[in-house]
Amino acid sequence: MDAQWDDLKIFLAVARRESLSGAGRVLKIDPATVGRRIARLEAAYGAPLFAKSPTGYALTDAGQRLMGHAVRVEQAIEDAAEEMMGKTGGLSGQIRIGAPDGSANFLLPQVLEKISDDNPDLDIQLVALPRVFNLTRREADMVVAVSPPNAGRLTVQKVADYKLHLAASRKYLEKYPPINTLADLSGHRIVGYIPDMIFDKELDYLSETGVERVNLASNSVSVQINWVRQGSGIGIVHDFAIPWTQGIEKILTDEISLTRSFYLVRHADDRRLERLNRFAAALVEGMRHEVARLEALT
Description:
By secondary structure, the protein is α/β, with parallel strands linked by helices. Among the domains are: 88 residues, Orthogonal Bundle (Arc Repressor Mutant, subunit A); 98 residues, D-Maltodextrin-Binding Protein, domain 2 (3-Layer(aba) Sandwich). 38% of the residues lie in helices and 22% in strands. The strands form two sheets. Strands 3, 4, 5, 6, 7, 8, 9, 10 and 11 form a nine-stranded mixed β-sheet that branches. It has a two-stranded antiparallel ribbon with strand order 1-2. Strand 1 and strand 2 form a beta hairpin. The chain starts with a helix and ends with a helix. This is HTH-type transcriptional regulator GltR. InterPro entries: LysR-type_TF_proteobact-type, LysR_HTH_N, LysR_subst-bd, WH-like_DNA-bd_sf, WH_DNA-bd_sf. Belongs to the LysR transcriptional regulatory family.
């Protein structure tokens, strides 16, 4: 028996929210009804689609296989609606992007605002998390990453290089001993990542400075930048974030200048979806322009 689209919508909601109650809130239906519809879908396919785990509902192998098909159906329906309603000039529906919190806080808001201005019928969701996103589980439609993944059915596009430097607030530099060489850092308070929570090797900035101790550590770039901004210590800061923070200046630029890259990662099956292709093109163009604009201000 072919699954009806309504059942597939419920399946997608449970897969993305990992719970019946979470899916019910999104769909505005009772969790018990969600459970019954999932049971009906599993009976139709003759296989369990979810396994109950301590963290919620996890996709089984059969569920993983259905996920890709369900997403393509979802995107095809949205594409058809745009075309039939005469909205081919602009995007509509909902698109979710996952990104590390540094780019999510200081780079993507203005890029996505421009895309929203150009596509008033489009709902954009930006999920900022200091971890790797799982596109196989469809946690997002696409992800901005700081290193290209080496596993999974994914497509990867390099977006742009970006710069990072040691930085401190003018208040801090006036209060503490001068910093003329990397060796001088040993007498200063250092801000950085919690070492065992660095989720990507490209974020291990301080290893290139020779610093062994991080006095103030957080898994959030935004927290780190706030510590630097308020004069709590010295840290590695994205150049594109500096124009958004008052009183921060780069230091030791001749000794430490880091280059990293952003990549746009998508599920391989989405290459055929014109709607997501158009959004991805606008996102890449906007990010390249904004990185260049902000870095030119530092």
